[in-house]
Design brief:
The complex is a heterodimer. Chain A is of the alpha/beta class. Chain A contains 9 helices and 15 strands. The model of chain A has no long low-confidence stretch (mean pLDDT 94). Chain B has 2 domains: 228 residues, 3-Layer(aba) Sandwich (Rossmann fold); 31 residues. Chain B has 8 helices and 15 strands. Chain B has a 9-stranded mixed sheet with strand order 11-10-9-12-8-1-6-7-13, with helices on both faces. In chain B, strands 2-5 form a two-stranded antiparallel sheet. The mean pLDDT of chain B is 94. Classes of the chains: A alpha/beta, B alpha/beta. Strand 15 of chain A pairs parallel with strand 15 of chain B, so a sheet runs across the interface. The structure holds flavin-adenine dinucleotide. The site of flavin-adenine dinucleotide (FAD) has 29 residues of chain A, from helix 6, helix 7 and helix 9.
């Protein structure tokens, strides 16, 4: 039996695990299976009982739990210290993180602090021990690259979205639950103003997302996107190009460096389909593309395509959507 | 105030994208480089690093007329000799000088190695207050360099900056950063020296003026050899091979005589699948 695999989760308090967190356990169990290792999960947060129970019910062998007020929203120095404590207490060599904005900082810092190596955007792994090969998306997903990681410390892997399925949940299954001890840390970065805790619906949870790109021609036409999104009970999204142009607000950007969405329906209007955009929406159940150019790359990803001017198609879709709602 | 910008030369990601989407991207015999059938994809400055440079220049602009001399800006890159181009760009934009760490191992694509080299070069400069990096390389999308650099320098790290300002001076000086997070903007501060990574929300980087470009020609980077800065071959992340995934289209094109007819056909189809059922 080799060193355990560790999945580090920092869930918001009160709830069970997010889909992404449950999927990370699936990835962890696959990685552990490659080398006949056990699976350990560190749960770091405040009010995390539901999350630790769920981790146990999803097949984790051992849970390291740090349930303290200071971990309510751990970031920066505190997150690195807590994660480092979890790696040391678990004795893990391979460590998995959820690939989000926090992991961009946590992954490489954790690896550097413990003299290991890290890789973000991980989509696959094969082999075991020193021969473990890790595949990650590069150039926004236009290509993949296989890597080998070395060094005396841990290998820290940040997962791309949806790389594994969540393990089945077995009600009542238990695991060893142990307190994770994290030393006192002085955070050098002071948060002066947290993001306004906007309790509104999240783009990531929307069942329908309607996104617009440069094909809208003019910033004012982003309203056509908002109107259709509203008519379909969904939320508006945008390509980075039009966020950079100031047509749409940054939190509405979909893609590699924006939101990652997995709705039932993703409508892309006037979006070319660059890999960095598709990295944020390619796991949608149904993708519809509206583009004047029949050769636009977006049609490689779309399930349904309309080759036409989105400024003429969108209002009609909105009208039909509103009609549908009124008819209910 | 001495600001260091870390800049990287990357294969133009838009170019890679284009070749991939048109099915003309392959991998050469080494397995570590792309093959585009004779045509070349240009190398450019990582756009996020260009924005890090812009962030440094805005700090100097903020110092006010006559005080520009109080803010010194040095650009550093590690890479092959051609990476001198990105440093020329930084100097043309307004950086005072630059240092190129010539590293024969660039193909390994190891951000940990890069960060060690940059940390050593920054150590040689001595009096650095603020290190600005791009949030990630737009080639391998890793973002390891700012994070590892902060650990190696023992400095606080702030990632994903959309605005960077200096508050106060001397021992009490701090950097105040607006961060562009998925859940909205966050305002943080950290004591100097610090490492900050810059995101595209910072906005468009300025174009070099023709005077700037001339100045850059007369002010080439100082060169340092990687072997002199880093003992032994300490690779942590090794690129074994590149893979070009197959993007197979399976798109059903919706026909119709007019945009409206196509919209109607699409809605009927989605409705038939139960897409809008409660
Ligand atoms: C490191 C990096 C990270 C990035 N991250 C992201 C990201 O997170 N999200 C993201 O979106 N991008 C990202 N990008 C940018 C990405 O590569 C593309 O540049 C961007 O997605 C293009 O936006 P677009 O499709 O709106 O514009 P364009 O590529 O200009 O496409 C416009 C499309 O509209 C079509 N069109 C024109 N007129 C009409 C009309 N009347 N009706 C219908 N269609 C029309 C055109 O045929 C074209 O296909 C990133 C790039 C890099 C290098």
């Amino acid at each position: 039996m080799s060193e355990p695999v560790l999945v580090i989760l920092m869930p918001p308090g009160g709830d069970g695990l997010s889909n992404a967190a449950a999927e990370a356990l699936g990835a962890g169990s696959r990685l552990a299976g490659l080398s006949d290792a056990s699976l350990v999960c560190a749960v770091i947060g405040q009010d995390i009982a539901a999350a630790t129970t769920e981790a146990a019910e999803r097949g984790v062998d051992r849970v390291l739990a740090a349930d303290e007020e200071r971990f309510a929203r751990p970031g920066g120095d505190l997150a690195v210290a807590a994660a480092a404590a979890a790696v040391e207490q678990s004795g893990a060599r391979n460590v998995l993180l959820l690939g989000n904005a926090d992991a961009l900082e946590l992954g490489p810092r954790l690896a550097a602090r413990l003299d290991g190596a890290s890789l973000m955007g991980v989509i696959d792994f094969s082999g075991s021990g020193d021969d473990l090969e890790v595949t990650a998306a590069v150039f926004g997903g236009a290509a993949h690259a296989a890597y080998r990681l070395s060094g005396p410390g841990p290998r820290v892997l940040g997962l791309a979205p949806a790389v594994a399925e969540a393990p089945e949940r077995e009600a009542g299954r238990t695991a060893d639950i142990e307190a994770l001890t994290v030393p006192a840390v002085e955070s050098r970065v002071t948060v002066e103003q947290a993001p306004s805790a906007d309790e509104g619906p999240r783009l990531e949870d929307a069942r329908v997302v309607v996104s617009g790109g440069r094909g809208l021609k003019d910033g004012d036409n982003y309203d056509r996107i908002r109107e259709l999104a509203e008519a379909l009970g969904g939320m508006p999204g945008a390509s980075r190009a039009i966020v950079d142009d100031g047509w749409a607000p940054a939190p509405e950007q979909v893609g590699l460096t924006g939101k990652i969405v997995t709705p039932d329906l993703y409508i892309a209007a006037g979006i070319s389909g660059a890999s960095q955009h598709m990295a944020g929406c390619s796991n949608s159940r149904v993708i519809v593309a509206i583009n004047t150019d029949p050769d636009a790359p977006i049609f490689n990803y779309a399930h349904y395509g309309i080759v036409d001017d989105c400024l003429e198609v969108l209002p009609e879709l909105t009208r039909l959507g509103l009609e549908l709602r009124a008819g209910r | 105030m001495h600001i260091v910008i870390c800049a990287k030369q990357v294969l133009d990601p838009e170019g890679v994208n284009g070749y991939a989407l048109w099915g003309r991207l392959g991998v050469d015999e080494s397995g570590r480089s792309f093959d585009t059938g004779g045509s070349t994809i240009p190398h450019i400055i990582n756009a996020y690093d260009e924005q890090a440079t812009e962030a440094a220049l805005r700090i100097r602009d903020d110092a006010g007329e006559g005080n520009e001399g109080d803010v010194r800006i040095t650009a550093i890159a590690s890479g092959d000799p051609a990476a001198a181009d990105v440093l020329k760009r930084c100097v043309a934009m307004g950086a005072d000088s630059s240092v190129l760490v010539v590293d024969p191992e660039v193909a390994v694509a190891d951000g940990f190695r890069t960060a060690k080299l940059l940390a050593a070069a920054i150590g040689e400069l001595g009096d650095v207050d603020l290190v600005l990096c791009g949030r990630q390389g737009s080639d391998y999308d890793q973002g390891a360099v700012p994070a590892v650099l902060a650990e190696l320098l023992g400095s606080p790290l702030v990632t994903l900056a959309s605005d960077v300002r200096i508050d106060g001076n001397g021992d009490g000086a701090a950097v105040r950063v607006t961060r562009a997070l998925p859940e909205g903007e966050e305002l943080v501060s950290a004591p100097l020296p610090a490492v900050v990574s810059v995101s595209n929300e910072l906005g468009q980087a300025r174009y070099p003026s023709s005077r700037g470009m001339m100045a850059a020609r007369r002010n080439p980077p100082a060169e340092r050899a990687a072997a002199d800065l880093l003992e032994g071959d300490d690779a942590r992340v090794e690129l074994m091979r590149l893979i070009v995934p197959d993007v197979q289209g399976h798109c059903e094109v919706i026909d119709g005589d007019s945009p409206e007819a196509k919209a109607q056909a699409l809605m009927a189809l989605l409705q038939g699948q139960g897409m809008f059922d409660e």
